[in-house]
Amino acid sequence: MKFKKKIILFFLSGLALFLFINRNEIGLYRKITEAKEKILNYDSVKNSAIYFLKKHIEKKDPKISNNSISKMEKIDLLREWVHENILFSSQDKRTSLDSGGFFDFYRKEGPEIIQAFEESLGGVVCGGSAHILKKLYEFYGFQAYTLDNGVSGVYTHVITLVKVFDKGRDAFYVQDPYYNFSYVDLFGNPLDFFELLEFLNKHKEEKIKVKMGKKNTISRIYIKEGHGPIIKRENLSYETLKNSFSKAWRQLSKIKNINDNPAYIYKFPVSIFGHESVEKELLKKVVLAISK
Fold first, then answer.
1. CATH fold of the domain at 61-290
2. What pTM value is reported for the model?
């Protein structure tokens, strides 16, 4: 509740300042969203909300604020935090924040989304969890993207790509907050996304290893008829992904020569979102990599 009150206080104080300065220009019934967009110090209010969100996150996992940990350790911890602390939903539009249409999910700021989970307003599926993780990475100074993969109408899955300057080059690492895993090489080192694609092109998937997170249970919100929304804990891991992917594999394999390793889903890029200035170039790079 303290987290909620601090965010509300900062937003309301900024709004009050704006209304006071412009009290002769704004009618009582102007939409609050219009007022918020014109708050003179809105960026300051937004940054304050992000500051308290980070404090909220770090209170639940103090290791995230430890400056002595490596970038990759922080990246993994943030993915673990999303997997463990947000609400997931089914495809039921009554509980789906990211596809239900009642929350305007992709236009919300990070603190507003996390607050919606705190209040059990609804949950998200893979696309929403990847988007939230992307937001958190950006709050902590990383450049990140969401990458949707698969074949529409058959099977799709969204993950987060985070950019890290590693070993003298820019590397992109897959982070899956829904199933809580990343990829490493045979020696346990983080595996760059484009190296992963190269292994898949050569059918050397044995060189791609899955690094699971510490936990594989999530909180999912459902509508129980006659009782309203309820939240249940359930298992969700890489094994769940393998089972899900295997159901779509036969149809996917007819389109392209692949086996039943879920990593082959990355050879079917659908869309990528992130920094507008580079996302198109990154998508081109992905398409070029899978066409080799």
1. C8orf32 fold (3.10.620)
2. 0.81
pLDDT digits (tens, 9 = 90+) for 122-150: 999 999 999 999 999 999 999 999 999 98
Instruction: State both tokens at 93.
Output: 């539009």
Q: Which residues contact 14 (CB under 8 A, 6 or more apart)?
A: 39, 40, 41, 42, 44, 45
> In which element (H, E) is residue 183 found?
strand 181-184
- Report the alpha-carbon distance of residue 60 to residue 85 in Å, rounded: 9
Q: Which long-range contacts (CB under 8 A, 24 or more apart) does 170-173 make?
A: 172/145, 172/282, 173/72, 173/75
d(CA 214, CA 162): 20
Is the confidence at residue 275, as pLDDT, over 70? Answer: no
Neighbouring-strand partners of residue 209: 184
The span from the CA of 57 to the CA of 158, in Å, is 23
The 3 state secondary structure assigned to 90-114 is CCCCCCECCCCCCCCHHHCCHHHHH
**Kindly report the CA angle at 190 between 262 and 197, in degrees rounded to 5?**
45
Q: What is the pLDDT of residues 57-114, one digit of tens each?
A: 999 999 999 989 999 999 999 999 999 999 999 778 888 998 877 888 988 888 899 9
Query: Where are the domain boundaries for CATH 3.10.620 in the chain?
Result: 61-290
Listing DSSP states for 29-55 in one string gives TS-HHHHHHT-TTHHHHHHHHHHHHHH
Look at residue 151 in the predicted model and tell me its pLDDT: 80
